[in-house]
Structure formats: C-alpha cells, structure tokens
C-alpha cells in the first residue's frame, strides 16, 4: 500500500515576523500549492531523489540559480532530518517502532524561497506519512515543534513556529507564542478562525524576489537578543496587529484588517532592510486600493481587495512587476 500525504503553502496574514520573537500571528494555509510525500514498505530504507537533488547542470549559471533557489543539497537533507527527528521522538517517548523499512519520495509545487514555506511543508507531509506508516500519534500542538526542530536543530536553519503551526492545523489560525507557555508546555496558544469570516484576499508572488528567511531575520535576531529597545518595541507593535485582527474577525469587523495589514508592513520597514524591489510590489498593490504586506520573508505579498474590478487591476498592475496574482484557496 502506498501512503500519500500532503501539506500546503502558507501566508502570514498579520503579526509576522513577530512569531520568531514570542509574538502573535494570524496565518492561512494556501491550498493552491502543496508538497506531497509518497511512502511505501520496502526491504531497505530508501529516499528517492527528485531532479532538483541531482548534480548535473546545463551550465555554471544553471548551477548558480539552482543553489540560490534550493540550497546546496535540495530536499534530501529535509527528509533525512525529519526521519531522524521522528525516530528521536519515538525513542524519547518510549514508542517502539516495528522492524519495517520504507521508500519515500517527495514532490512540491510551492514556489521556492518566496515566503510560502515550501521546506516545512515537505516536513509536515513527511511526519504525517511516518505517523500513518508506523501507526504513531503525535499530539497536534506538539507536531509543529518537531517539524521546526528538524530544521533548526538538525540542519541549522533559522525557523519559527508560525509556518509549521498553520501547515499542521490548516485553514486559518491565530497563534500566541507566549514565552512562558512554550517553555512549560512546548507549544503556544493556537485558536482556529472560521475561514468564512475572512475578507477577500489576494496573494502575489515573484520568484525573482526570492529570499532565504534565515538571512533576512539574522540582523534583527541579533538586535533582539541584545535587548535593543526599538526592535523590541516594534516587534511588540507588530504582534499586537495580530491580536487586534483576531478580535476584529471574532466580532465580524473583517474590514478592519485592511488598515492593520498596511500598518503591519510599515512597522516591519522600521527595523528590517526591505529591498526597493519588494517595496515596489507593495506600493503597486496599494495604488490599486488594496492593502498589502509580506506573506513571509519577501517575494510574496498578501492583501485585501474590495471587488472584482480591483482584483483585475491587481492582475494588470502587478504583472508589470513579473508577479503572479492568485486568490488563496483556504479551507
């Protein structure tokens, strides 16, 4: 029997990037794009590489572009790290795994390095497949932590919980990463939001504006760890946008998110060095009357539009910046 599992792209609606600093966020899963895992029993444990994991290139420039988008090893290290972390979890919790091996392969349609969390989607799908194969239940609030540790502890990748939480929970989720709660329970407070309460959303991305999120966050992380007052204050204000947005959605005031999303991005610009190319994408969307902010660490924006006429304007305007506009499918 072949086990097939899937996890989806995500977009930060409000509060990011405070999630990496014990803040608050609201995120949505974007089912337009996903990563899938195929896993089946076999005599030996085997990981089947995808074309992007190979070492054959058309030219020096092909290699350069591949490394820029996929890193030096493609997706294979993610799979290895996830399997190891799953094994560690089972051993630490007294779960004896049967003597069964498997063959695993992954696929992904998530645009890489544009802030839609393609790497963590592969890991979430992998954990789901391993849980099914070995009949192991990992509590849902704990699963995002294991996925994150597969990247941070095993591979040294800078990562936060937001992406993994929304990809594990799916739909729309409000997250409060309270430092004391995470220290005592291993997870934050996660509350589902009914997707039908959301306003009309668009997502636009340009793969030419790709960023590696760890590099984007490294300077602010150092300043936060040093206790720089301005950074701590602004990150707190960004986190509060998520709290305000959660209350607005609970009370049927979805229109309030328009200003909150714009304010979220404007605050981000006070402490992050946002490239002009990304700002142009934001400003182009806002010139159509829409709100706009980063969906992640750069390359993808998310915002609210009022009607089909405005959506058509966004299609036309953002195409001038080589950006593709979609309406996110949230379930």
What would you say this structure looks like, in words?
Residues 247-312 form the GHMP kinase C-terminal domain. This is Glucuronokinase. InterPro entries: GHMP_kinase_C_dom, GHMP_kinase_C_sf, GHMP_kinase_N_dom, Glucuronokinase-like, Ribosomal_Su5_D2-typ_SF. The chain is built from 11 helices and 10 strands. The protein has 331 residues and is an alpha+beta fold. It folds into 2 domains: 3-192, Ribosomal Protein S5, domain 2, CATH 3.30.230.10; 196-326, GHMP kinase, C-terminal domain (Alpha-Beta Plaits), CATH 3.30.70.890. The strands form 2 sheets. Strands 1, 2, 3, 4, 5 and 6 form a 6-stranded mixed beta sheet that branches. A 4-stranded antiparallel beta sheet has the order 8-9-7-10.
Describe the structure using short key phrases.
331 residues, Ribosomal Protein S5, domain 2, transferase, ATP binding, globular, alpha+beta, 6-stranded mixed β-sheet, 45% helix, single chain
User: Which spans have pLDDT < 50 for at least 5 consecutive residues?
Assistant: none
Number of contiguous helices: 11
Q: What is the CA-atom radius of gyration, in angstroms?
A: 20 Å
* Strand segment tally: 10
Instruction: Briefly note the CATH topology name of the largest domain.
Output: Ribosomal Protein S5, domain 2
Overall helicity: 40-55%
- In whole angstroms, the N-to-C terminal distance is 28 Å
The run of helices and strands is EEEHHEHHHEHEEHHHHEEHE
Tally of distinct domains: 2
Please give the CATH class of the largest domain: Alpha Beta
The share of residues in extended strands comes to 15-25%
- The 3D shape can be described as globular
CATH architecture of the largest domain: 2-Layer Sandwich
């Amino acid at each position: 029997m072949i086990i097939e599992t899937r996890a989806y792209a995500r977009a930060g609606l409000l509060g990011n990037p405070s999630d990496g600093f014990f803040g608050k966020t609201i995120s949505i899963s974007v089912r337009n794009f996903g990563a899938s895992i195929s896993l089946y029993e076999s005599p030996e444990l085997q990981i089947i590489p995808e074309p992007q994991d190979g070492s054959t290139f058309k030219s020096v420039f092909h290699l350069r572009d591949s490394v820029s988008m996929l890193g030096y090893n493609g997706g294979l290290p993610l799979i290895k790290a996830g399997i190891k972390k799953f094994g560690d979890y089972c051993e630490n919790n007294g779960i004896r795994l049967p003597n069964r091996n498997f063959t695993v392969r992954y696929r992904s349609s998530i645009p890489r390095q544009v802030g839609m969390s393609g790497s963590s989607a592969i890991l979430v799908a992998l954990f789901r497949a391993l849980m099914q194969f070995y009949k192991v239940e990992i509590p849902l609030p704990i699963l995002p932590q294991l996925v994150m540790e597969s990247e941070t502890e095993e591979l040294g990748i800078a990562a936060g919980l937001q992406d993994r939480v929304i990809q594990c929970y799916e739909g729309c989720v409000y997250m409060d990463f309270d430092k004391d709660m995470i220290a005592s329970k291993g997870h934050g407070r996660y509350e589902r939001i009914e997707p039908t309460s959301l306003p009309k959303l668009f997502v636009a991305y340009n793969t030419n504006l790709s960023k590696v999120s760890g590099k984007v966050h490294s300077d602010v992380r150092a300043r936060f760890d040093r206790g720089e007052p301005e950074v701590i204050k602004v990150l707190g204000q960004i986190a509060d946008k998520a709290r305000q947005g959660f209350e607005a959605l609970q009370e049927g005031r979805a229109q309030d998110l328009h200003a909150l999303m714009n304010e979220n991005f404007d605050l981000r610009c006070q402490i992050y060095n946002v490239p002009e190319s990304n700002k142009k994408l934001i400003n182009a969307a806002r010139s159509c009357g829409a709100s706009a902010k980063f969906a992640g660490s750069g390359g993808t924006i998310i915002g609210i539009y009022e009607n089909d006429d405005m959506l058509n304007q966004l299609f036309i305007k953002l195409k001038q910046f080589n950006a593709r506009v979609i309406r996110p499918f949230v379930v």
